[in-house]
Amino acid sequence: LQSNDCCVGTNFSEENMEPGEESMIKTTESSYLASPNLPDFHSCNPGWSSAFYGADCFGSEVHSYVKNLGKQKSSESQNIDAKKVELEQLLMMETKNYRKTIKFYQKLVQKERRNKGPEIKSMLPKLRGQLQEMKSKVQFLELVKKYIMYAEQWGVESCVLPTVVHSSRADTLDVAPTDEPSLLVYHNTPKHNCNNQNGIRDLQAGTPLGLMAYLYSRNAFLEGYVQQFLYTFRYFCTQEEFLQFLLERISSTLSSASLEPSTSFTKICNRSFYILQAWIEDCYSVDFATNTDLLYTLKEFISSKVAPLNGYGERLLSLLQDASARKSDSTYHCSGMDKCEEEGEEDRKSLHSLCKKLSEDVSRKVCHIFRLWHIQHVFHTLFSLSDMHAHTKKTVQYLDPSSEVFHKCHPVHFLNSRALGVKDKCVAVQKAISTEAVSLKVCNLFLSKCVQDQYLLQLLRNADSISTWVAAEIVTCHTSKMQVSLLSKFLLIAKSCYEQRNFATAMQILTGLENLIVRQLPAWKILPAKVAEIMEELKAVEVFLKSDSLCLMEGERFKTHPTIPSAHVLAMHVQQLETGGFTMTNGAHKWTKLRNIAKVVSQVHAFQENPYTFAPDFKLQSYLKQRINRFKDADIAALAADNCANFHQIPAEKQSRKIQDTLRRMKATFQ
């Protein structure tokens, strides 16, 4: 299977274009014009693409465009502030035109729906083409904007990095460049990208102090190092140690930072603010929200040390307040789904009461038939295949209660999963971490000092529940015909899921169908051949997902189509990268290993950028959730034992012939 062929998504159309365009528009409205001596008040978070692509995030076209920016209007073409001003004007103009074109397009779509005239029909395809071109232009300018932001003047040359390490002592600043090989280990490489123009050195390893100091390197943002560091620093230092490092650099340089922009004081101070803001923006939920002492230390330092001397302090305090509010909303928000679950529970109780009343009035058999009718009616509604387009849209919302949990996940949640009890083959989610896991070298420091949220474990539990539910529903069907029907529907749903790039649900259904008891059911032998082929397709998709940790990031589909990966498969890929030592013989931590881990987990944020936009049906979701909860801990073997449809039956005629043959043989012996 090829990554571009196995996943079929929706085509570009009026219906699925508008929400994506509007959300993209919002990202282009930020402004980053600010004082030349202070960091700009825009987002400093490099984003997943920086960690994934590294130095290749910016192509040759971007470098060429930035180099030529401003040459037509000013002789000071190399002045970064002049480039910012011109780029901001271009971006505002292109965004304004793009927004106007979208509104015009939406009006045409509405007219076309009311009156399908030939003129409007012919205009829509051309306008869509123009929109794609304009969108590409705006996205390109956004990339140029990010490049200029990362190429700002606050970084230092690598030979000055030892100064950063010792900058907590004011008397060591602005000394001549020195070299400390013990801090960082480099590897000489040929020229391979636009940012490494001299082709000199590639970072291979470093001590914790050295790796933290490299954040101040001039090209740390451009190389993707900052985002990769934010994903993986917990392997070699705690959040408290990292925060202390940043605060010490700010304390020793803040009072002198406003004197001269070119001094090491200003560069180290402002880069410290950049890194601190990027850390808060990207990792507040996993580092600060779970560690009240860390959050208090940061707030106290900003309020007492930074705010009185520097306007950036107010920005950081506001940023922390906003991040805290978002975390609270995601934790305590009561969605419509929760309300409908309560309604669904009431419906279930009403049904139970009705069945109880019926059982008192009529035989238990009638009550049993009524219950089966109700379940079959709901399943017919859920899995009706008469309208495949509508069925495809229903698949995600009905069969993926983990989708919401996945979108709350952070890449950090997929690190160190072995210590949480996540294993290959069967997922053993332990309630308490065993002493054996604690002793593992890979997670010794990470485990003992860094608190991990339970999002990954929740995803894996949900996946197990759905797989068990799939198996339970099949083995409790009371006839082979019903089993064939349900097997067919589950297989078709799984196919729809992976075609929509919902690999999580597809693999959960596959696991349920591969249950040892389910695979032995007689119903498989009478399953239509075309439907049975889907099982082989699903197995091929599973092999495809396990073959390469980055297979879903190939091509362009992941940028334009929603994707939900299999949490267990992704966790296994990360565990494979975590296998082996993290340090070299000299004690330096292997940055190449950490960088590869960061690249793999960055997929989580990449896939979260394109959520599914189907309108949910809360009542049906609620009922399905009740069914899953009912069977999540079921013993499939015990359920199957109570159902004669799960066993191979000898046909009556064949049985009769056997008896007659036996009687004949017995009669012959007595003659």
Explain how this protein is built.
This is KNDC1 protein. Helices cover 61% and strands 2% of the residues. It has a 3-stranded antiparallel sheet with strand order 1-2-3. Among the domains are: 42-153; 397-424 and 449-642, Orthogonal Bundle (Son of Sevenless (SoS) protein, Chain S, domain 2). α8 crosses α26 (591-601) and α19 (455-475) packs antiparallel against α20. It is globular. By secondary structure, the protein is an all-alpha fold. It has helices at residues 14-26, 48-53, 60-68, 80-114, 118-150, 161-165, 208-213, 225-232, 239-253, 264-288, 292-306, 312-332, 336-361, 364-383, 388-399, 403-406, 435-438, 444-449, 455-475, 480-499, 503-513, 516-519, 529-547, 557-560, 567-578, 591-601, 603-608, 618-631, 636-641, 652-670; strands spanning 184-188, 201-206, 589-590.
